[in-house]
UniProtKB/TrEMBL annotation:
SUPFAM superfamilies: Composite domain of metallo-dependent hydrolases (SSF51338), Metallo-dependent hydrolases (SSF51556). Residues 49-383 form the Amidohydrolase-related domain. Belongs to the metallo-dependent hydrolases superfamily. NagA family. Transmembrane segments: none annotated. It comes from the Bacteria. The keyword Hydrolase applies. Pfam families: Amidohydro_1 (PF01979). The keyword Hydrolase applies. This is N-acetylglucosamine-6-phosphate deacetylase. Keywords: Carbohydrate metabolism, Hydrolase, Metal-binding. The gene is nagA_2.
Length: 402
């Protein structure tokens, strides 16, 4: 399908143009900024803001669907649902299993990614790889991860994980103070995997040493890591000082106080901050009760908690995260676009084709109105979500919408 979105406010991490057009041809952006006589449908977007689609590198599910699963169709249902929150690409997050590697879940993730490739014409967000959050994490900083899930890094297990994931492993969290962690970091970096420091009780020196081995990402800064103190700076100081490391921030204002959210962005800068939801299956469902890898959780006052009150993943959605970042931190809309799209694209290793309004890039777009309410999500040139008003504007057949 070929169409032109005309006269919109265009914003990405590299530009902020008050009035311009985006020409989409098939799955790619053909031109940006031009408002000529391009062929195909011409759509008035003069009352709208267009940004690159959001990329979720740390989410466990939403809409009632889990990504840590042995059901390929559950992942398929998730990728059909998630565009309603502005997400056009995501990593399939896998966590631990009792006393063993999560082999079945990793195999399911691979199968789900390959299924999406085989059905690329299906309107849905694109799973661009796998994120393994653990099981190589600190028992002291495990968060909602049960001790029975945790493991010690091992050379044979590293090889097994790489074998199971078949080239789709993009991101892995590790606590670098664990025995054998340095060897695992080296091997994963050699294999092209983005390695993240997280769920860690490492001190400043341990974190610096691990970063020198090739770590370039940090899992939910502040959460599940040793605190930042003036005489015991811990891993966060090492993360901030290492310009090659990007740091995640759960943008709900609950996991991290808004003042600290703003402080982290000021320390890392907008070009190194990766906004994530760390969402669970209950995201997008008010007053939900749901499961996180075998544990019952429920939404209480906008937060996801286990039965004992432990704060677990969030129920945040990325469309709300955009508004939160603008409300709670000092950044511009262009900065936020980078934090929700371009920066995560770098960690997911898809920044060469996603996350910018640029000719030749995937036609992954989100359309907001001027009050910053999501109106439509386009994934690789296909409309995957639209409000009633935008469904009419785009001449959509309801039956064709996911």
């Amino acid at each position: 399908m070929r169409f032109t979105l005309q006269g919109a406010h265009l914003v990405d991490a590299t530009m902020d143009v008050e009035r311009g057009s985006v020409v989409v041809d098939g799955t790619q952006i053909q031109a940006v900024g031009q408002d000529d006589d391009a062929e195909g449908q011409r759509i008035d977007a003069s009352d709208s803001i267009i940004l690159p689609g959001f990329i979720e590198v740390h989410t466990h599910g939403g809409g009632g669907f889990n990504l840590h699963t042995t059901d390929v169709e559950e992942v398929r249902s998730y990728r059909r649902w998630i565009p309603a929150t502005g997400v056009t690409s995501f990593l399939v997050t896998v966590v631990g299993t009792p006393n063993a590697l999560p082999e079945a879940q990793l195999q399911t993730a691979v199968a789900a990614i390959e299924q999406a490739h085989q059905h690329s014409s299906e309107p849905s967000a694109e799973p661009v790889g796998i994120f393994l959050e653990g099981p190589y994490i600190s028992v002291k900083k495990r968060g909602a991860h049960p001790p029975i899930w945790l493991r010690i890094p091992d050379e044979k297990e590293t090889a097994r994980i790489l074998e199971l994931t078949r080239g789709y492993l993009r991101l892995l969290t590790i606590a670098p103070e664990l025995p054998g962690a340095h060897d695992m970091i080296r091997r994963l970096v050699e294999e092209g995997v983005t390695v993240s420091i997280g769920h860690t009780d490492s001190d400043y020196e341990q974190a610096r040493e691990a970063i020198q081995l090739g770590i370039t990402h940090a899992t939910h800064c502040f959460n599940a890591m040793r605190q930042l103190k003036h005489r015991d700076p811990g891993p966060l100081a090492a993360i901030v000082q290492a310009e090659q490391v990007q740091g995640e921030l759960i943008g709900d204002g609950i996991h991290v106080h808004p003042a600290m959210m703003d402080m982290l962005v000021r320390m890392l800068g907008p070009r190194r901050t990766v906004v994530v939801t760390d969402a669970l299956a209950g995201a997008g469902i008010p007053d939900a009760t749901f499961e996180f890898a075998g544990q019952q959780a429920r939404v209480i006052c906008g937060a996801a908690r286990l039965g004992d009150g432990t704060l677990t993943g969030s129920v945040l959605t990325m469309d709300q995260a955009l508004r939160n970042m603008l409300d709670m931190t000092h950044v511009s809309l262009s900065d936020v676009s980078g934090m929700l799209s371009l920066n995560p694209a770098r960690s997911a290793q898809v920044a060469d084709r996603k996350a910018l309004l640029k000719a030749g890039y995937d036609a992954d777009l989100v359309i907001y109105d001027r009050s910053l309410q999501l109106q439509a999500t386009i994934c690789r040139g296909q409309v995957c979500y639209a409000t009633d008003a935008w469904r009419q504007r785009l001449s959509l057949d309801t039956a064709k919408e996911a």
